[in-house]
């Protein structure tokens, strides 16, 4: 793709034919990008499309294999993040680059000029954060802050460097809708000051709402540059995915009165100082029901999953009931034997052993619940690989898992395909209870819709499903009822049809009544 | 015994305690800085013994104990550079390299010191600070000491100030907490770690010099006698906090001297049990003071022992 607009004099940053090769993989292949001043420019693409690679090169943390970067019309080499900052490029990272053991002011000081005292920075940060409506306590330790507050630090830190171009990598994935609104206001303020923003996202509504232009990537290649406001979400999605994404059909099956999952006043103390304490969680899930549990990351989702799955036991056996049995003191295998299936959040190292093959991973998960099928009798319990392979192939076919070779190692699969296999591994047993945590995190749109459809189909066939997710679109797509987890407390379960995005947002911020003052909840 | 006699006896005992504690304190405070930067150098024992032999030999050759101490410090520092080169530049495993450094140090020191075993050597003499040294009890204890004692105390407060009040100290702690994030901010991870490792080596070298020029002014093979390992343990049990290292080192020194006196007096307690007492007492006390899990976690360098390779 050639660049015909070099004559434009407002061009702040221009990228010409930039390429990054990792071994065999062309993560970025001859990408062109132009960002004007006073512009919010979207960089769109699915997970793995090469967005992060591109911005890492712009910020000097990766070295381009070939290609050219022009800053205000002059060719530049950005060899380090320090150099990028010196040019006037600031970055807010997707995975926070904060130091948990340090205070807010210390974190900010680390990215500032040498000659400002930490106290001076604390003062500046407090003033600036108020000015932009992102209140922060400079003396708090990062470890004690919520994810939304951590993002504010990143933004304030970047703003304090007074950059002309701010790169934001998936900033709203950890925010409540209200926090996201606040962020958009901040971005518009930045644009009004004559600065530019490169906004990376895969959320189309956001991009259409605030971005002036968009550049779309797919599989490391440029697929188009457009004005997002002139496009429809469907046309943008096509540019991102390359084909139309099959939408999920949710007919809403019959919900019986048969309670399959029950938690009664379930409490669990925090296991580590940084973990969340679960407080009085009440939850009942009936056959045919999908309960979506929304919440900002780090509010007790993984802790809740652990006590429901049996990874952590609780004090009283009656606190958790699965299929009518009290299981609070039982481990995972015992709960699986009752007909439950579990899909934890981390694919590698939790749901699967990365260096083992898919079929071996299946045996690891199901060696107790399907002992009759996969193991011979007798004390040695020899694995019957023929049966294992047969089941593994069935799962691969059923879930449309794409991979190279026969029975490859888990780590060789892409995130989406491995996740399809892991979900399929549980579904293959036809569990009467399924509990999944962040089922489509970091999964491409095609695989995500396949997984969501599978969850819906399972519930329609009469199972009880709990979906813990940060993705509100996902929750609305699959759930029949919705609850929100906030600081270890679960809100009352309400039918999905009666929930609004705004109401969920308030619950995520910890406000259960009519009070809409967001900040009150953060003053702790 | 009259009152002045008791004072003299107590002062003598307390003096031996400071002498026993100083090498531990020097080595531990150096290792604390190293570990705060996220590097685990298990070669402390080796660096101490190299410092000890070089300090003694150079003091013999030059006839000046101060020059000897200076050379001991430099030797520890240079020896630690070997560790730095292997683990930071060549990204070798820190645990294995540290262990190798200890073994290598013990071997090389025996070789260097072969002809000096048992020789009577120069001693670092106490430097009395005018006026202050004439205060009863405290004077001889704190203000009529050798230079390495003063240095060790200064190092504790200096390191504490450096880590928590200066920008470089902040950067060093940041690197220890998350080297990836620090790199993303443009802080030079490898350079800072080299400096930290060299500081640790210099401190261990001085600890060795204290052994061969103050504690027992002669060269004995393997004279570090496990002090490097104790220093390593002190750093961990002190939750990487300088003042706790000071407390731990002196507690260890005090119980060591105390149990020696108890053995001499013959209380009928098995001597093996008494010999184990300093280790037990130090661990128990430091575990009790670091029972605040949150605070301990806050102070633990999260990237400790992990190699850093910037992805480019």
What are the defining features of this structure?
heterodimer, A: 524 residues, alpha/beta, Rossmann fold, globular, disordered C terminus, B: 312 residues, mainly alpha, ABC transporter involved in vitamin B12 uptake, BtuC, two-stranded antiparallel ribbon
Describe the overall structure.
Chain A is of the alpha/beta class and 524 residues long. Helices cover 32% and strands 23% of the residues of chain A. Chain A has helices spanning 51-58, 81-87, 104-110, 118-131, 147-160, 177-192, 204-210, 233-241, 301-309, 332-337, 358-366, 371-374, 385-399, 415-427, 445-460, 472-478, 501-508, and strands at residues 11-22, 25-36, 40-44, 66-71, 74-76, 89-92, 165-169, 196-201, 213-218, 221-226, 259-268, 278-286, 290-294, 320-322, 325-326, 340-343, 433-437, 464-468, 481-486, 489-490, 494-495. In chain A, the strands form four sheets. In chain A, strands 13, 16, 17, 18, 19, 20 and 21 form a seven-stranded mixed beta sheet that branches. The model of chain A is unreliable at 1-8 and 513-524 (pLDDT under 50). With 312 residues, chain B is mostly helical. Chain B has one domain (3-299): ABC transporter involved in vitamin B12 uptake, BtuC (Orthogonal Bundle). In chain B, 72% of the residues lie in helices and 1% in strands. Chain B is globular, with a radius of gyration of 20 Å. Classes of the chains: A alpha/beta (524), B mainly alpha (312). The A-B interface holds A 61-63, 80-83, 85, 93, 96-102, 106, 109-111, 114, 118, 141, 143, 272-274 and B 167, 170-171, 173-174, 177-178, 180-187, 293-294, 297-300, 302, 311-312.
């Amino acid at each position: 793709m050639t660049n015909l607009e070099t004559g434009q004099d407002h061009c702040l940053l221009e990228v010409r034919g930039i390429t990054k090769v990792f071994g065999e993989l062309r993560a970025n292949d001859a990408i062109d990008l132009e960002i004007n001043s006073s512009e919010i420019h979207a960089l769109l693409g699915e997970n793995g499309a090469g967005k992060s690679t591109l911005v890492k090169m712009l910020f000097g943390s990766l070295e381009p294999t070939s290609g050219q970067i022009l800053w205000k019309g002059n060719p530049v080499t950005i060899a380090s993040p320090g150099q990028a900052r010196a040019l006037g490029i600031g970055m807010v990272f997707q995975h926070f680059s904060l130091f948990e053991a340090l205070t807010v002011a210390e974190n900010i000081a680390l990215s500032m000029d040498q000659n400002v005292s930490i106290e001076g920075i604390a003062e500046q940060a407090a003033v600036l954060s108020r000015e932009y409506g992102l209140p922060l306590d400079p003396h708090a330790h990062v470890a004690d802050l919520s994810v939304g507050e951590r993002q504010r630090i990143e933004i304030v830190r970047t703003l304090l460097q007074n950059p002309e171009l701010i790169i934001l990598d998936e900033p709203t994935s950890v925010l409540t809708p209200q926090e996201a609104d606040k962020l958009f206001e901040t971005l518009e303020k930045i644009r009004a000051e004559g600065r530019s923003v490169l906004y990376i996202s895969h959320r189309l509504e956001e991009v259409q709402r605030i971005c002036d232009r968009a550049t779309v990537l797919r599989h490391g290649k440029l697929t188009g540059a457009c004005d997002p406001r002139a496009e429809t979400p469907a046309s943008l999605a096509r540019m991102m995915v390359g084909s139309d994404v099959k939408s999920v059909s949710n007919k809403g099956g019959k919900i019986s009165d048969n309670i399959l999952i029950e938690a009664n006043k379930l409490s669990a103390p925090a296991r580590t100082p940084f973990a969340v304490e679960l407080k009085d969680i009440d939850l009942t899930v009936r056959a045919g029901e999908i309960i979506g549990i929304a919440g900002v990351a780090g509010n007790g989702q993984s802790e809740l999953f652990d006590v429901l799955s049996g990874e952590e036991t609780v004090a009283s056996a009656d606190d958790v009931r699965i299929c009518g049995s009290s299981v609070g003191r039982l481990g995972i295998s015992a709960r699986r034997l009752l007909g439950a299936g579990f899909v934890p959040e981390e694919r590698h190292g939790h749901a699967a052993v990365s260096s083992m093959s898919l079929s071996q991973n299946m045996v690891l998960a199901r060696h107790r619940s399907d002992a009759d099928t996969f193991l011979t009798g007798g004390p040695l319990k020899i694995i019957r690989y023929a049966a294992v392979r047969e089941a593994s192939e069935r799962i691969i076919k059923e879930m449309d898992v794409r991979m190279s070779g026969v029975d490859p190692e888990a780590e060789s699969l892409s995130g989406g395909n491995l996740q399809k296999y892991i979900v399929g591994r549980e579904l293959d047993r036809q569990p009467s209870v399924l509990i999944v945590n962040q089922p489509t995190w970091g999964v491409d749109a095609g695989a995500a819709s396949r997984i969501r459809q599978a969850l819906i189909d399972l519930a329609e066939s009469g199972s009880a499903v709990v979906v813990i997710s940060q993705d509100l679109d996902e929750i609305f797509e699959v759930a029949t009822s919705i609850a929100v987890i906030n600081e270890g407390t679960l809100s009352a379960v309400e039918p999905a049809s009666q929930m609004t995005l705004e109401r969920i947002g308030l619950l995520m911020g910890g406000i259960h009544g009519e009070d809409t003052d967001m900040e009150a909840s953060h003053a702790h | 015994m009259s009152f002045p006699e008791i004072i003299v006896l107590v002062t003598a005992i307390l003096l031996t305690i400071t002498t026993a504690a100083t090498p531990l304190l020097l080595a531990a405070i150096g290792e604390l800085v190293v570990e705060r930067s996220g590097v685990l150098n298990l070669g402390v024992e080796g660096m101490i013994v190299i410092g000890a032999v070089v300090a003694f030999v150079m003091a013999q050759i030059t006839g000046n104990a101060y020059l000897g101490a200076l050379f001991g410090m430099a030797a520890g520092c240079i020896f630690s550079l070997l560790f730095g080169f292997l683990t930071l530049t060549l990204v070798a495993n820190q645990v294995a390299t540290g262990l190798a450094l200890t073994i290598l140090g013990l071997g090389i020191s025996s070789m260097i010191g072969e002809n000096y075993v048992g020789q009577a050597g120069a001693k670092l003499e106490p430097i009395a600070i005018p006026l202050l040294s004439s205060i009863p009890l405290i004077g001889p204890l704190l203000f009529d000491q050798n230079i390495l004692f003063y240095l060790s105390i200064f190092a504790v407060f200096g390191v504490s100030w450096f880590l928590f009040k200066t920008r470089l100290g902040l950067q060093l702690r940041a690197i220890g907490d998350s080297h990836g994030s620090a790199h993303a901010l443009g802080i030079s991870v490898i350079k800072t770690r080299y400096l930290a490792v060299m500081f640790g080596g210099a401190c261990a070298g001085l600890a060795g010099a204290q052994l061969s020029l103050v504690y027992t002014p002669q060269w004995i093979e393997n004279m570090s006698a496990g002090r490097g390992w104790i220093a390593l343990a002190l750093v961990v049990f002190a939750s990487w906090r300088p003042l706790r290292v000071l407390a731990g080192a002196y507690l260890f020194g005090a119980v060591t001297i105390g149990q020696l006196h108890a053995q001499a007096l013959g209380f009928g307690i098995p001597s093996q049990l008494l010999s184990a007492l300093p280790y037990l007492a130090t661990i128990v006390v430091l575990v009790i003071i670091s029972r605040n899990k949150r605070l301990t976690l806050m102070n633990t360098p999260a990237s400790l022992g992990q190699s850093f390779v910037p992805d480019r």
